[in-house]
Amino acid sequence: MVSLSVELYAFLLIMLTGMAVGFLFDLQRVWRRVARPGRLAVKLADAAFVIVGGSAVTISFFYISWGDLRFYLLLGLLAGAVAYFHLASPGVTRLVEACLRVAVRLILRVLATGRAAGGGLYRRVGHPAAR
Fold first, then answer.
1. How far is the C-alpha of 102 from the C-alpha of 77, rounded, in Å?
2. Is there a contact between 22 and 89 (Cβ–Cβ < 8 Å)?
3. 20 to 30 A from 26, CA-CA: which of 19, 69, 97, 120?
4. SS3 labels along the chain
5. 84 near 19, Cβ under 8 Å?
6. How far is CA 98 from the centre of its chain?
7. For residues 26 and 90, is the Cβ–Cβ distance under 8 A?
8. Nearest CA to 13 among 62, 86, 49, 54?
């Protein structure tokens, strides 16, 4: 028989797994909002989320309870996801979205600078095929 402290520890660990899967879902949600991907990219991202999230849950269940599927662990997984979405998701979503927008602006600025520098070089040297 497993002691209560071991079961509580397992419950808390599986709650962390639920929170981690919730964070992955938020990352995907922010990516969709910022990038506005097409249908194929959305389907590929959904498949990747299912594979990564499902693998994380499966590995957690094997590591935490030696593969035993117990009802209180399923409740812990759900409780972790609910706790994440109610407590951390709004702040995390805003933070990740702001960071992603800054990164996109920075990348676009670097690309525009490179294009401007390359365009100036093109005008000075001329097109190699035109010689």
1. 33
2. yes
3. 69
4. CCCHHHHHHHHHHHHHHHHHHHHHHHHHHHHHHHHCCCHHHHHHHHHHHHHHHHHHHHHHHHHHHCCCCCHHHHHHHHHHHHHHHHHCHHHHHHHHHHHHHHHHHHHHHHHHHHHHHHHHHHHHHCCHHHC
5. yes
6. 15
7. no
8. 62
Q: Which among 42, 38, 36, 40 has a CA at the least distance from the CA of 101?
A: 36
As a whole number of angstroms, the distance between CA 79 and CA 12 comes to 10
Q: pTM, whole model, 2 decimals?
A: 0.74
The residue with tokens 């759900």 is 78
Half-sphere exposure in the Cβ direction for 39 (13 Å, CA): 0
pLDDT tens digits, 109-118: 888 786 666 6
pLDDT in tens, 90-102: 899 999 999 888 8
